[in-house]
Specification:
With about 400 residues, the chain is α/β, with parallel strands linked by helices. It has 14 helices and 15 strands. The protein has helices spanning about 15-20, 65-85, 105-110, 140-150, 150-160, 170, 230-245, 270-280, 295-305, 320-325, 335-340, 355-370, 370-390, 390-404; strands at about 1-5, 30-35, 45-50, 90-95, 115, 160-165, 180-185, 200-205, 210, 215-225, 250-255, 285-290, 305-310, 330-335, 350. The chain has a seven-stranded parallel sheet. Helix 6 links the parallel strand 6 (about 160-165) and strand 7. The longest helix is centred in the N-terminal third of the chain and has 22 residues, at about 65-85.
Length: about 400
Amino acid sequence: MKILFIHQNFPAQFIHIANKLAKNKKHELVALKPDPVVQLPGVRVINYSYLKKPQPNIHPLLSDFEAKILRAEACANQCLNLKNDKGFYPDIIVAHPGWGETLFLKDVWKDAKTLFYFEYYYSPEGQDFDFDPEFKIDSFELIERLRLKNTVNLHALEIADKGYSPTEWQKNTHPQWSRKKIRVIHEGIDTEFFKPDKDQFIEVKNKGVKLTRDNEIITFAARYLEPVRGFHIFMRALPELLKERPNAHVLIMGHEKHGYGAPPKVYPTYKTMMLDELRDKLDPNRVHFTNWAPKDVYRNILQVSSAHVHLTYPFLLSWSMLEAMSVGEPVIASDTAPVREMICHEENGLLFDFFDTNGLVNQIVRVLEDKDLREKIIENGKNEVVKRFNLKDSLKTLEKLIIS
């Protein structure tokens, strides 16, 4: 079977399924992405180049859409090269439509089946855009921009033969008429990699600190340290948490730059903003920033943690929450829609109101002090991930969808 993957950051969410399919020598796997070059065993990765540059003085509302058009044009041009010069006709195209790359695919290969990863559909109400009053900007132009972000998604929903989303919440952000095309298939958690290790330890080398499971450690992880992931809420809870737990250490993992949301207005990063706001209220000997650690180091940090905190707007669910549950760490998470799909309060985790820093501290203290509750949450959390989100089952379901 000839399978074409398209993703502007390949392999990204397709890494596990691409690796699995590549083991079957009956398949021919090709992937398209822009520069830089990446290599994945068993997959021929081809880079595409932009044919034009962004135009100056374009209407401000069209700037984001222009970027997607330029990407769609470049991708289609490389697809035509594959078709005309190499004679490549995919049986199925597996792609993420969010950056525009899928716009012209059916005009290149009209008979190719399409399976799209529908990650998120934007809305000015009831999701991330209007959730946090502290960072809400009353601007009709921003709503216009948000509406236009869905242009490529709408086109993709029309031309897709099949689609999938990782959670029910993300599926249901899409228009009701389109949901019949979308199955819920999570990318999967590697429960063999993310598993408990009671002998694990970590070192904060720049501070000469070594931490083991005998220490009390609270962790927070997000790809980007920004409001979308509740970084500001977590930071504001720390002074009281450090007071309540005088021996606790806090480990914060994530890129300092903003990613999903808007940048801060005055400060270069939200980290600098929060450190300036809190100033002398944090003990640097107990609060440690690790940036975004390599996968094995990140896993090791989760393994030594006593409690993991996860916050999110009504937005994409982070893998980190499920990975923390998988390693046997009790999770304290914001009571927001994506989280409620995975966590039942006091059964496999603890929930608190996103904006309630006192509630967050109380739930952390509770899980640290109540041994029976802690053990119940840990065991149920691990079982939940193994039952619903383990990588082997997720890949089996996705592979069947691709080759059927």
